[in-house]
C-alpha cells in the first residue's frame, strides 16, 4: 500500500468519483473537493533540472572550479622557466658647448647634437632546484581543484534537497487545501440541511446559526490554506530562479521509501559525502604546506641566460666612439643558501604543523558531525514511518465514523455539536496524515543528501 493511497482514494482520486454518481453527501463532498490547478504540470525531475541550470550559487561555485582548473598549470607552480624580452631606446637632442684646457683646441658650440642608444635583450630564468617546492605547489594546485569540485557537488546536492523539499511542500499544501475544501463542502451540506430543517420546524434556530458559524470558520480556514499554498509555490519559483508569480501544477502524491538502511547510508556517506571529502582534501593541503615550509631551508639553484643587442649612435664628438653595435649571449648559475632569517623559518615550520593538526581535527569533527546527523535523521525517518502507519489507520477509522455520523445526524439522533466533532476529527486526521507523509519524505531527502545519493535517487522521480 502506497503511503498516500488513502488520501488519494478518498480525496484526490478525481477520476474515480467522476465515473460514478455520489450516493451520500459525504461522497458528494469528496467529489466536489476537486481543486483545479493552473499552469503547466512540472515533475520533481523538471524542477531539479531547472534549478541546477539557473541557480546562481551553483554558477558561482562552478566558476570558482574553473578558476582552480586554470591555476593548475606547470607554469603557475614554477616548474617551467620564465623568458622576458626587453627593449630600451634612449634618444637625446642637445646643444653642445665645450671649452678645452688645451689652448690650441678651439671651443665647441654645436646645436642639435643627436645621440641614440637602443638595447634589445632576452632574459631567461629557470629555477632548477628549490627544495622541491615547485612540485609541492603543483600538488597543492591539484588538491585545490579537487576541493573546488567537491564544493560544487555539495552545492548541487544541497540545491537538489532544497528544491525537493520545497516541491513536496507544495504537494503537501495542495493536499491540505483539498482536505480543508472537503471539510467546507461537508459544512455547506450541513448548513443547507440545518436551514431546511429549521424552515420546516425540525431544527432550532440555534442549530442553524451554529452550522452557519462553522461554515464561516471553515471558509476562513480555506482562505488561509490558499495563502499557504501560494507561499509554497512562490518559494519554489524562487528556487527555480523565475518569476515568483508563475503558476504551475504539481503531482498530487508523495511516495515515501520505507527501505532505507542505516549501514548502507553510512558507507555511502563515508565514501561520497562532499563535505567530508573537502575536509580530507584540506588536510592534504595542510600537509603540503608543511613540506613547502621545510623546502625553504634548502638551497635554491637558478639557471640564468640571456641575449643582448645594443646599437649606439653618438654625434656629440666628445667620445672616441661615434657608433657602436654589440650583441651576444650571457649565461650563468645563481645559487643561494638560507643561513639565518631571524628565526622565521622555525616559526613557519611550527605554524604549518599546527595548521595541519587543526585540519586533522576539523576532518575528524566533520566526520563525527555528519555521522551524528545521519543517525539522528535516520531515527527521525523510522519514527515518522511509524507515525505515518498509525495515521493511516486513524484516517480509516475517522472516515467510517463520519459516514455513520452523517446517517445519525440526518435522522436526528446526533446533535450538531457531535457531528461537528466527528467532522473536525476527520479533518484533523487528514492533516496529520498529510504532515506525517511530508515529514517522512523530508527525512528521506535529508538521508539521501547526507549519503550523497540524492541526485541519483530524486532525479529519477
Automatic annotation (TrEMBL):
Chief localization: membrane
Select a single GO molecular function from the record's annotations and give it: porin activity
InterPro entries per UniProt: OMP_efflux, TolC-like
Q: Which UniProt keywords apply?
A: Cell outer membrane, Membrane, Signal, Transmembrane, Transmembrane beta strand, Transport
Q: Which Pfam families match?
A: OEP
Q: Name one GO cellular component term.
A: efflux pump complex
**Which regions span the lipid bilayer?**
none
Q: Which residues form the signal peptide?
A: 1-18
Kindly list the places in or outside the cell where this protein is found, as annotated in its UniProt entry. Answer: Cell outer membrane
The UniProt family comment states: Belongs to the outer membrane factor (OMF) (TC 1.B.17) family.
Which PANTHER family does the entry mention?
A: OUTER MEMBRANE PROTEIN TOLC
What is this protein's record name?
Outer membrane protein TolC
Tell me what organism the protein belongs to.
Answer: Spirosoma endophyticum
Lineage of the organism: Bacteria, Pseudomonadati, Bacteroidota, Cytophagia, Cytophagales
Amino acid at each position: 500500500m502506497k503511503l498516500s493511497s488513502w488520501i488519494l482514494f478518498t480525496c484526490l482520486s478525481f477520476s474515480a468519483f467522476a465515473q460514478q454518481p455520489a450516493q451520500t453527501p459525504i461522497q458528494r463532498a469528496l467529489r466536489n473537493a476537486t481543486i483545479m490547478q493552473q499552469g503547466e504540470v512540472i515533475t520533481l525531475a523538471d524542477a531539479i533540472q531547472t534549478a541546477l541550470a539557473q541557480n546562481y550559487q551553483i554558477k558561482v561555485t562552478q566558476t570558482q572550479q574553473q578558476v582552480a582548473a586554470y591555476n593548475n598549470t606547470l607554469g603557475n607552480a614554477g616548474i617551467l622557466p620564465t623568458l622576458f624580452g626587453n627593449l630600451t631606446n634612449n634618444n637625446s637632442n642637445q646643444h653642445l658647448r665645450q671649452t678645452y684646457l688645451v689652448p690650441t683646441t678651439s671651443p665647441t658650440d654645436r646645436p642639435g647634437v643627436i645621440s641614440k642608444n637602443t638595447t634589445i635583450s632576452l632574459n631567461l630564468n629557470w629555477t632548477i632546484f628549490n627544495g622541491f617546492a615547485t612540485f609541492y605547489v603543483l600538488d597543492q594546485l591539484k588538491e585545490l581543484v579537487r576541493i573546488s569540485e567537491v564544493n560544487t557537488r555539495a552545492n548541487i546536492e544541497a540545491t537538489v534537497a532544497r528544491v525537493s523539499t520545497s516541491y513536496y511542500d507544495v504537494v503537501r499544501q495542495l493536499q491540505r487545501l483539498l482536505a480543508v475544501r472537503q471539510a467546507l463542502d461537508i459544512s455547506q451540506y450541513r448548513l443547507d440541511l440545518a436551514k431546511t430543517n429549521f424552515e420546516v420546524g425540525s431544527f432550532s434556530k440555534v442549530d442553524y446559526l451554529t452550522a452557519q458559524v462553522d461554515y464561516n470558520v471553515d471558509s476562513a480556514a480555506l482562505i488561509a490554506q490558499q495563502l499557504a499554498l501560494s507561499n509554497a509555490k512562490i518559494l519554489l519559483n524562487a528556487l527555480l530562479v523565475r518569476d515568483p508569480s508563475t503558476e504551475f501544477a504539481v503531482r498530487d502524491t508523495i511516495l515515501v521509501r520505507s527501505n532505507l538502511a542505516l549501514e548502507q547510508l553510512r558507507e555511502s556517506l563515508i565514501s561520497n559525502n562532499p563535505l567530508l571529502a573537502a575536509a580530507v582534501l584540506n588536510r592534504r593541503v595542510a600537509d603540503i604546506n608543511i613540506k613547502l615550509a621545510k623546502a625553504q631551508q634548502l638551497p635554491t639553484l637558478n639557471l640564468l641566460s640571456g641575449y643582448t643587442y645594443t646599437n649606439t649612435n653618438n654625434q656629440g664628438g666628445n667620445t672616441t666612439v661615434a657608433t657602436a653595435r654589440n650583441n651576444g649571449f650571457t649565461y650563468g648559475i645563481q645559487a643561494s643558501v638560507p643561513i639565518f632569517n631571524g628565526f622565521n623559518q622555525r616559526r613557519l615550520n611550527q605554524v604549518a604543523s599546527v595548521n595541519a593538526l587543526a585540519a586533522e581535527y576539523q576532518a575528524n569533527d566533520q566526520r563525527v558531525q555528519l555521522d551524528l546527523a545521519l543517525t539522528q535523521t535516520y531515527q527521525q525517518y523510522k519514527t515518522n514511518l511509524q507515525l505515518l502507519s498509525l495515521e493511516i489507520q486513524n484516517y480509516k477509522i475517522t472516515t467510517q465514523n463520519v459516514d455513520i455520523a452523517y446517517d445519525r445526524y440526518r435522522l436526528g439522533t446526533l446533535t450538531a455539536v457531535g457531528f461537528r466533532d466527528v467532522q473536525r476529527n476527520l479533518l484533523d486526521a487528514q492533516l496529520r496524515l498529510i504532515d506525517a507523509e511530508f515529514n517522512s519524505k523530508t527525512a528521506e531527502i535529508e538521508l539521501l543528501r547526507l549519503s550523497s545519493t540524492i541526485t541519483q535517487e530524486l532525479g529519477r522521480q
